[in-house]
Queue: 4 jobs
Job 1
Amino acid sequence: MAKMDDSTFKALIDDHMVDAVNYYDTEFSADRSETLDYYLGEPFGNEVEDRSQVVATEVSDTIEYIMPQLMKVFSSSDNFARFIARQPEDVKAAEQATDLVNYVINSENNGFVNIYNWFKDALLFKVGVLKVFFDEDIEVVEEEYKNLNEEELTILLDDDDVEVVSQSINEVGVVADDSDLPEDEEIDEQDVQNIVSGENQIPLRRTFDVEIKRRKNSGKTKIINVPPEEFLFSRRAVDLQTADFVAHRTTMKVGDLVNDGYDYDTVLQYSGYSEIENEMEVQQRFQDTESGAKHESKNDPTMHDCLVTEMYLRADYDGDGIPEMRRVLAIGEQNFILENDPFDHIPFCIVSPILMPHRMVGRSVAEMVKDLQLIKSTVLRQLLDNMYLTNNSRVGVVEGQVNLEDLLSARPGNIVRMRAPGMVQALNVPQIGATGFNMLEYIDQVRDQRTGFSKASLGLDPKVLQSTTAQAVQSTIQGAQLKTEMIARVFAETGCRDLAKLVLLLCQKHMMKEKTIRLRNEYVTIDPRAFDNEFDISIEVGLGNGREEEKMAMLLQIAGKQEQLIGQLGMNNPVVKPSQYVNTLSKIIEMAGFKDTSQFFNSAEQIDQILAQQEQQAASANAPMNQQMQEIELERQKIQTDIALEREKMLLELELEREKFQQQLELRREELQAELDLRAQKSALGGDISTNLPRA
């Protein structure tokens, strides 16, 4: 297959853009504009003159109820994400990756604001979008150096960011007369020999004057919020990673594009009004500022707006039969292509609060309560109109029998003149208050079931607080928070996980040197080039007040058990290390709302280092004593060995003597028995054996 030509590729991206824009216009634009009206409490358009026009705020109340809970979940700790090593040797790298990614999200970028707008867009408009990219902010400065020696010049030119503009050599001759020697020159042995030998000139010395340009790369990973109306994607997209087409369509100033290196005339040619400026959402967002109209300077062309579309699409551009991802940068409504390069990832992270299977964008919380806001507003209007009519009821009069001027005067104690009694009769208005308030309560119950937003979850419902046990109250509150917890978990496992991955990927690709960052009141050096991008990712979320209380109670129990073990077994026990105890205390402090635990305790790493130093110092100080004790122990062991050997020798000798005595005793017994046997035989024969008996 042949490589795709420019016209074919241009037609391809035009088709993608038309389809994506049509999908946005039909599926999202009107709905998002209406949602924003509901959130702002704008009139519905069905209002009747001289009747109540109050608008309920169900959408706003629900969103603003959920947002603090979500932000508490994701911002209660400095660790937005945590990387987990898959191999034991990668533990240190995983810890450094965690520190770096959280530093980039929270410190180098305004993490709280970015995440707040990200989540709020999702709750309101079905999807929140973050764009993560590396901004190569390169500054070129000119520097001049004079009278450098060869070593200094070599060090200067070894820097890859240095470009030589001009260079000159200065040859310096020094006469033998000491008075002519420069004060700053040092005389070596060869110089002295030359002077002594009558040479009138010391060997020449060379210095260098250099003008350079130094490139200072202050680039960093940037995270920005993308307005939902600027984010386009193919209608059949299931997720970002497999989407055929994703685009960011926005406007930029001509001067900003020229500053990025693009041709001024080309950019100016394609600048001007664009459709995105007339999107319903944009108009709604800026409806209080000159009806949303944008102001464009006519006298300064560099301040004109230009439509810029950054596209990521899959296409077989090189003709190898395999579609690959490409990044295309186009300007103007005609999509004039400025850049067309291969790319390896999509730089967006999206969140949607209520997932729809097999669709990239799910449902919003706002669309779940918009109908309730309309119904509630209608009921409130009816109630208010009923109260107005009750307090200012209409009357019937007999024409010509009542002074209408007196009747229309609402002054207290006013007299109404009539020609005959009964000429004025009040028209009773039925009271609908009880029914109306019951309806409002029912609407609140429906909202609670849909969103989890209730007085119970806020701890404000007196009926709940009157429960017989604290456990019942807690169970009710936890049950009401389940939906918010589900939204938090969905955000954590989708967009938040992708955000951590993207930040780490960009740090690995673009950070070419070590980076020193300030963490926990100390400076830490991190080299992202050494990271293995095969970490597991855990998004740190703490869900629900009840869960927090349970975790706090459990942590306190763990801390108590650790204290008990350390007290009983000592600091160097095999069960609990002091650093593990400090980790427990740090978690307790974080859950209490204090982010900087270093105000209260040293870190676990610092404690391990201090204990290691103390052990080393103690070992060094006790080395002579330990050697003496070893010698004493060896001498003691030798004495004990000698005593044991001597004892065994004595026991052996005693045993030998005993056996010898037993043998002698047995021999004497046998002799006596033989004598007795002999006497018995002689007696039996009648012989005199008295002479043979032993004498007493």
Job 2
Amino acid sequence: MEISFLTISHSVGATAYILLSIYIANRHLRRNADRTLFIASLASAIWLSVLVLQGFDVNVPFYIRYTLELIRNTAWFGVLYSLLGIQFTPTRSLGKNRFYITVCILILLALMLTVTIYQGITNHQLISGYTTLILQVSISVVGLLLLEQVWQNASTYSRSGIKYLTIAMASFFSYDFFMYSDALLFQEMSTALWDTRGAVNALAAPFIALTMVNSNKQPIGMHVSRQMIFHSTTLIVAGVYLLIISAGGYYISIFGGSWGEALRVLFIFVGILVLVVLVSSPVIRARIMVFISKNFFDYKYDYRDEWIKSTDALTNTHNKNNNIEKSELPSQIIQILGDLVGSRSGAIWGQDEDGQFVLRGKLSLDDQKFDAIEPSSDLITYFKQNEWVINLDEYMLDPTKYDLIEIPDDMLKQEQPWLIIPLGMSDNLIGLVLLCEPIASLDLNWENYDLLRIVSQQACSYLEQSDSQERLGAARQFEAVNKTSAFLVHDIKTIIAQLSLLVKNAERHKTNPEFIDDMVRTTSHTVEKMEHLLQQIHNPSQEDTSETVELGVVLLEVYKAHKNASPTPSLEYPEEIALIQADKDQLKSVIGHIVQNALDATPKEGDISITTKQASGFVFIFIQDSGCGMSEDFINNLLFKPFESTKGLTGMGIGVYQSREYLRKIGGSISVTSQLGIGTCFTLKVPTIGK
């Protein structure tokens, strides 16, 4: 019997992948990536072995051969997807579309597999051979595109580890594309291309083996996502389930008599409805994830994904001003920790100003009162010493594992209490979280406890930040009150000085009508000023009311308020009207402070002058005196600092500082020149507006 080239080609391919599978199984099954390659290699070996039987005239149905080819393609797509777990910086398009591409591939393969098995069992053709060729070409193209994306985005270090593997995968994906495209073009499968396919796949096997050898020196870093396994398992199970339902419906229609077709439709509808209910059930989904974690992974968690999810969840508790929303954060922490172990309810305690641990929030628990936990309690002492999670199931069975500590009754009387998690960093315990039993039973190990502890520390930092922001806000409020009080005291002192001057001159000028009129005006102004100060006390954060004011009017009012002082200030300003956008009372207070300081520093026989000059959109106000003057050191280092004064205990040192801050607020400035024993000149620069 003559052995055909097809037999030799596929025999070589089958042998190569059998040996490759044995090599991987004996040397490289410690990592998830190795197991993925083993499955793909074994699937290729089985597929090629079945094709060898075809060369010996063994009648293997087409649907079986094609089903095995689809399984082989699915296995290599699993390897391809695992390559996306290499540490690289993905492009935006890859990052956004990775999930959707994966789902589309899995759906396509599952549908093709379901249709193939259905056609083989029922001998009922659902799709034509032409459509099958198009789908095969599509699979090859998608494989090459994803392989190109992996290579383009991989780092130099990662490329060296996957170089030979990508060459191997590119070779058989390219060959499949060429073979099926040729068949699509000529409406006939090329015998030569089909017979050579086994040898081409055999040539790829040494490259894969070389990759595994190099992986001992330089890790590939492959990773299969839990979500990918979960969705793949769900789709495969759903596909098999639908296949069974379809087969059942087929036989019902055959043996159901006159009711067969109606019963078939009803049976399929009920089957699909049951599938939707099962897939949407959180209990079923939770149990599937537990099963996958126990049986497919060395580590239960994808730490990167869990860290990103917890960070995003905590970050999303910020409000529009980027401050942590205090009311939402505690509940968010409970939910984040609960999601790690499948729990849906719990409570959180935080330390208050008195050191007690009070309830900060709860999730899906009864509205009952929770007592505060004393800082000297057994529970708090245990957490400060051990920083470890307490499993209440273990505690109930053997309290000695936890030093026979006393657990608060508020926690134990909850429905199915489960875990108590400390919230602390570096021996600083700031809170604790109680979680209740999860939906699906979960056996905890060191990995669960480590992840809970790490995420709880992250949550602790956010909770501490929230408390710090609250304390900072309160401190800022006190600071604002103290600052406002200092300014108010200064303004009150100015008012008292004006009233004292009136009282001092009243006895001498009480019969002078002009003095009486001036006293009435001054008193009326003082009343307005006091009312303004009362408004500031009641609402210190109230914004200043800006309006268009005439500088000449403001200067004249300041002059009239001080014209009875000794020495009497002189006022000169140009006839041209200068308009300013400012709060009139504030501007008058600023100028009045400077004038009053000049009066305090100048003897009665001295001179004080107020003059103005306009230039380039500004008006300059010069307040000059012949007083004692100030040193250069005082001007540079102390003059514009609050609570610094040359008046000793009688001065607050507020006026000049307040004046400068307000002028800056409206776009102006203040400067000063002075010389000891000669005098001082303050220059106020104020922006003007058009008439």
Job 3
Amino acid sequence: MKKKNIFLASFIALLTVMSFAICSVYRNDQIQELGRSGKQAVTWYLENQIQETVRGMAQSVRPNDEIVKFDSGLPDYMKSMITNDLKENFAKSYLELKKDSNFQYYIKDLKSGKEYGDKRLRDMSQEELRTSSLLYGLIEYDKEGNPKIFGDFDDLDFQTQSLTQYLHYFDVTQEKGNIVTYQVNDEKFTQSQVVIQNPRQMKIMFRIPEKVVKDQGVIARTVYDWTNYTQFSVIAALIGTLLLILYLLFYPISIVEEVNPFLTFKKVKFGILFILLATGITMGTAGVLALSGATISGTLLSVLNEYHIMMPQQLLFLANLVCWMLFFLMVSIALFEIKYIFVKGFWRFLREDTLVGSMVSGIHRHIDSLADIDLKDDATRCLLKFMLLQIAIMMVLCLFWWFGMFLAILYGFALFMWLKQKLNSIQSDYEILLKQSQELKEGNFQTELPADVGIFNALKDEFSEIRTGFEKAVQEETKSQNMKTELISNVSHDLKTPLTGIRNYVELLQQEGISEEQRKEYVSMLDQYARRLHILMEDLFEVSKANSGNIQLDMVELDIIALVEQVQAECSELLQERQLEVVWNRHDLKQVSVMLDGNKAFRIFENLFINIHHYALAHTRVYIDIRQVKDQVRIECKNISKEPLNFDADDIVDRFVRGDKSRHDGGSGLGLAIAKSFTEAMKGSFRIETDGDLFKAVIEFPLIKDA
């Protein structure tokens, strides 16, 4: 976990530092000069347009001059078409620059002496033009049309020539060496058949000022174009990518692949991932190039200032920072994927992480699953019949050609509506079951499911059983909580009574002047209370062991009849105290052998006789009935209760539950609970039955099979 956190923190820090460093050098003079000089960019961009503009200037001064010379082999309509197209192109280029505030020009017709344009250029020397201009040009044509060219375009070919770029709107049918053949309609011609004529006796000057005004013209757009700064952005992106390569090579891939976003992208199949990364990197590259270029050139800052955006420079810095970080993040994911392929192995990667590999594996699994199709299953057979029916219907519809296609569309629509109706019905039935589950979750067990829930009818009975089980569990839990409350109350009361008695008699013994007879009486009472407390604590200990399943048993073969007789003899004084007569019914059984723990079995019947002593009606009979029932021995102890039996027979064996709730005669209230726990621990059963005032305890133990 610590290594993952270290990697994530260092990775975010690296992206932030690289992006911050790039954005921080935007305002460097050398970087700004890279674009703001604009000379190379403008020269390259306007190269063809300047040639067209020069001829457009000459055409505007002398519109009747011949601008193109044709070979006699061309038809007149083609000559007219080419001439008109060339004039239109020349005029268009000239007018575009003419209305540009950053373009200044001067034209002088040497034949007539007329001057046009900005006459201030006339008085400027070449040195002045060179030092005060971003770029400039001076062309003088003699009587024959031969030019003298000075300035930044002196390497351009302004000579009389066939200009191939002006013929781009015609179809090229053949290129053979330097000969290019064009075609318009059914006529073909070569570039040598079309010759552009240079102006004659004309002087043309033009310049772009060193300080270009930001307007909507083509020159300003070229000078301040963000593409002028792509060189800087590309270099920055390459350096950042190199640093990321070194960084990701340094970290083990086991750490990197457990950190988002690498973890998320690793789960995407390569085909989809490739599209995502290609799209992300492409858009990211375009984004950083455009955003950084427009920021460096000042274009975006001007826009924000125009709309009075607060803190424009800070906003642009933050936008560029985020853009570069996202770009480097996408590059990092791509680099990680490349490293992941090499580490995992190409063929394993192809098999497990590509769409093709997944499709092949899926097809293989589906082929294997065909063997597991059980045609005896009703649902499978129904689905198979439905599929075969659809295939048969579509095959029949295909026999009707175009009309069949129309029928197929109608059938497909009808099938869609039918399936949608079925789906809605299933969804409705599902929502009923879902609502029922919510009701159960909230403890409402009274709601009933409809008679018919479609395909979920098989689950309806299960839900009913679950509801019944939940209801019973809630009732048991409620009962258990009530018992715990009653247990705490009874334990507190039964502990408080002897402790209070002990405290009182200790205080009496501490008094002065008591006689020896009184002291003996007090000591006797203390002994009784101590015995009572001891019995309570012993019973609590036994119940605790029984509930925890921690009862240690020493199972031996015992005669259950002899054991009960022994217990009855031990408790005879208690029974005689209430003048209770014990009546035996052994059903001719002399001896019944069972596997029991002698001490625990003795305690069971001892507790029963003690319970009889406490709650049986005096001067009545107690019946002990022992019989064999199949492979078990049943012992029944019956007596007449001195109080009405107004309790639940199942509750009487719970902890601290007394048949006579008004009595507190020293019993712990745990006797029957202990007897039941011990019986069940020895694989027996214990239950209480009542009939009017008749109280009956029924105990059953399994017989020894070989006996």
Job 4
Amino acid sequence: MENPLTKLVPQLFGEYPKSFIKLVENISLSPDQNSDEVTAILWKAYEFGDRCHNGQKRLSGQPYFSHCIAVANTLASWKMDTTTIMAGLLHDTIEDTETTLNEITDIFGDDLGNLVDGLTKISEITYSSRKEKQAGNFMKMLLSVAQDMRVIIIKFADRIHNMETIRHMPQIKRHRIAIETRDIYVPLAHRLGMSSVKSQLEDLVFSVLNPSGYKEIESKIKSSERQRHKFINKVIKPVEEELNKYEIFPLVYGRAKSYASIYGKMMNRNKAFNEIYDLYAIRIIVEKIENCYLALGIVHNIYLPVQDRFKDFIATPKSNGYQSVHTTVVGPNGQKIEIQIRTKDMEETAEIGVAAHWMYKESQSTGIDKNVKWLRELLEILQNESTDPKEFMDLLKIDLYNEEIFVFTPVGDLVQLPINATPVDFAFQVHTQVGMHCMGAKINHAVVPLNTKLQNGDMVEIITSKKQMPSYGWQKFIVTTKARNLVNRHLKKTHDDESIKLGIEILTKTLRRMKLTDDINEFKKSYNRFGYADTNSLLKAIGTGVLTVRDMFKKIRPKEEIEDKNEVNDLSSGFFDFTRNKSKDIVLDGIDNLLINFGKCCNPIPGDELIGFVTRGRGVTVHRSACKSLPLLNHESDRLVPVDWNVKSSDQFNVLLKVVGLDYKGWLKDMSECISKQNVNIASVDIKVNDSIAEANFIVQVNNNRQLDRLMQKMTKLKYIDYVERIGR
């Protein structure tokens, strides 16, 4: 039993707790650091954290501070600096004890205080759901990462130990934490190049979510361990002997893949355990880059390389900084085996990723490394554009899971993109304005549609036009977080601008009929009385049908009567001139001849699912149920009513289609014939051609949405068509 006095004056007694001594032994000191000074400052944090967590227990029954010590030890094994290790010891003090951020900062300084604050979950904000709270916490953490990359490294160490001890938690909580780890932390570790962390977390998640599968793989790996080592030694020996002839003395070893990875391959390929050839990889670690390629030549001279299984990540590093040469060869007995060749520095980066870039010493920068470009862009979106936590999490997941391809600009610059990326994604990666005005593309000097999927090694050239702006059609094929966020933001702004324009039109015309034209400014400035932040928000509400001018009048002029003889006419005329306004088309609970306004924002046609919004004194406004402008506020939900169509199968309805593609001789003829073959009439067509890109607006007459869907599918399949988009959403 440890002497309790040692906690007070270990310097006098020369007795530190065993756990503290072990931690000190794990720390990697730089040449300019004094061992006694590091020990003293580390003890200060250790003793403070132990005192703050005194009396607290984990579900396992262990003292809570044992978790903090485990986190600190993991950070020490990654060769992190003293401040980071101290933050590991104190990472839960603000969240789980009475300790404040000011106390941490006053005692240990701003650097450590900022780290602990970045790791503290959000508690002051009330969220509508657990998922939204989770997203908010993750957003806060990533914003802290923008200032100091060490935040995420500490978080990984924290998550590893929590997963290692997760068996003591209730089953439902175990499952939830494992899912979160699988969906966020595993791919994030992958993108940050922390392969050892990724493998650890993958296997821990696997053991929680599929314990029987985990035990099965574990048993088979252990039973074949002796045979596996024998085979690896057989492969390695001739390679080592040949390298030694060139006075190259590498570190050569074999490493088994993670259990989760092996199980995934068995499931995806529908193969038995003994049929998976890449259960392990052989690594050759050399001193210099030139020796990597010499070793590669020797390996290929001894063993037959497998075509299309060679990757040079030294010449073209991954976005997370990973570098290595990968090759698959046919080894003894005809068995395929993967060989990875890299330098010692590359090996360290491959194992602990970003942590290897931040062998933090007190004088070094703690900002985001230039090698993690994707993370910088993600944080830029978070800081400047995205405010919705749930939306950000969706964008994050898209970005985390994507593997990479490499393409080139016309001048030879290398651009990294996710698999399935298109010229539009490439354009946004080059520059935001290039993406915003992208109207066409050339791949390897040949003009292609914008939805073309890029391949490794493609040379991409973007055709731009100042008149071109993002469209809804782009949402169907863009994949990068940056492109998706910017396109969505533009489309939302465009939609909002249209709603504001319609709102001012409705307000102006309605007040004119009420003979209150001179009072329009009074109505515009009344936004705060209706719970809106500014005039534009008020006009947007009017334009989308959430608020009516009649409702405004009753609140602003409660004692006056409404003078409005023509309540409905011209309410939103001119927004879509081709849309109908016929009450006989709609029934409500078997009642027809209703006072009906069709939503100009979505232009519904038979077959679309409908919902009606009861306006005060203006009848029912009918929208598509998926309409983005549909008033769905909780306090308005009682005004939503089910409605249905009352039309004949022969009735025709006008729909506006936007078609974009490459121009060629006979383009309009092919489009017209395609439409005609579907027994659809063209009421109007407007076509413009700019730099070989044709953009046409067709007003077609259809009976229902099934006919429209068939038509759009046929049009999309035509040669050189980028996309076909229904206007009115």
